[in-house]
Amino acid sequence: MLRTARWFFVTGVLVAVATELLWRVAGYYTPGGYFFARLALVLWPTSIIKMVLDDKDAFTPQGALFFLISFLANGVLYGIFGMIIGAVRKVVTRSR
What we know:
Blueprint: H1 2-26, H2 31-43, H3 61-94
Helix pairs in contact: 1-2, 1-3
């Protein structure tokens, strides 16, 4: 169960980092950026934490802290899902 949660945590952090990188490459205010904004709402729900930042604040130590909190919070959220899935899998395999 914890191994599953660990993998989900790592996946959650990597998904958040990859989404932010792709979003920056595509550009925030382009059609491609709009696509990644919509994708972020689904795959990276904690990206809403970034609403605190302006464009100029993203490259300050404070901005880096908000990004780190957002990435880790997404990992924790995915980890909770992983724990639930791991527990359900354990119960299902035990009952057989």
